[in-house]
Amino acid sequence: MLIKNKKFIILFFLVIMLSACSFKKQAMITKENNQLSSVPEKKIHNEMTVPLISANDHVRGTIDAPVTIIVYSDFECLFCARFENEDGSVARADAEFGDKLRWVFRHYPLPFNAQAIKAAEASECASEQDKFWEMHDLLFFNSSANQLNTLQFKQNAVDLGLDSAQFNTCLDTDKYYDKVVQAIVLANDLGIRSAPHFFVNGHSIIGALSYEDYDTDYGREKGLKTIITEELQKANN
């Protein structure tokens, strides 16, 4: 697995270098280490065409929901966990807006997070048994508790009532490694360089955005609640 991690890191940076040639006109999206910033990032202004939702995506919510939120994320990223945990913006949006939202999760494990790829693979192995979102929630809980490792992934499978033999074989054989790496390549081609990075009805936003509006040195910024509310108003017009 160490060899695969090294190959992934090399591939990650190679793709970024190649992608840079295609994005010369694009403003710098974020610092390379954006994940470590404790300040929610401002919404970026460059245009990005988000790939259509496909059978490869993990989707929850009604198909005709007026607001679709596509999240590119990393299970080992602490700010991703903050965004997605039970007290974060995702849960608060779910509680307030319910079936008006459709969520899509896409993998973007960062190269400096040692367990990120394997965690993504674990979620795919759980998806084989229709438990992607349950594993998704546990992985972010594990991340917050600094408990991301293969033994914990397998314990999660037991806790979720999965067929352990099937799950363990899937995980131990790196069955979904290539799928996860391909997801990274596609995200890099789009111009994504950090996590979390998400799109609300196509509007690109970087960082673990606060749910409520917040103050910055540049003035008052919109939180996720306001952005969703504005999209719902557009849908009703």
Give the secondary structure arrangement, pairings included.
Layout (H helix, E strand, L loop, with lengths): L1 H21 L35 E4 L5 E7 L4 H7 L4 H9 L3 E7 L8 H12 L4 H13 L5 H10 L4 H9 L4 H14 L6 E4 L2 E4 L7 E3 L2 E3 L2 H13 L1
Parallel strand pairs: 2-3
Antiparallel strand pairs: 1-3, 2-4, 4-5, 6-7
What does this structure look like?
This protein is α+β, with helices and mostly antiparallel strands and about 240 residues long. It has one domain (about 1-20, about 40-210, about 215-235): Glutaredoxin. About 45% of the residues lie in helices and about 15% in strands. It has helices at about 1-20, 80-85, 90-95, 115-125, 130-145, 150-160, 165-170, 175-190, 225-235, and strands at about 60, 65-75, 100-105, 195-200, 205, 215, 220. It has a five-stranded mixed β-sheet. The protein has a two-stranded antiparallel ribbon with strand order 6-7. Strand 4 (about 195-200) and strand 5 form a beta hairpin. Helix 1 (about 1-20) packs parallel to helix 8 and helix 4 (about 115-125) crosses helix 8. About 35% of the residues are buried. Mean pLDDT is about 85; it is low at about 10-45.
Total domains: 1
- Uncertain segments are 12-45
Spatial strand sequence of the major β-sheet: 1-3-2-4-5
Rough outline: globular
CATH fold annotation:
Glutaredoxin
The total of helices stands at 9
Estimated radius of gyration: 18 Å
Helical content, roughly? 40-55%
**CATH class membership:** Alpha Beta
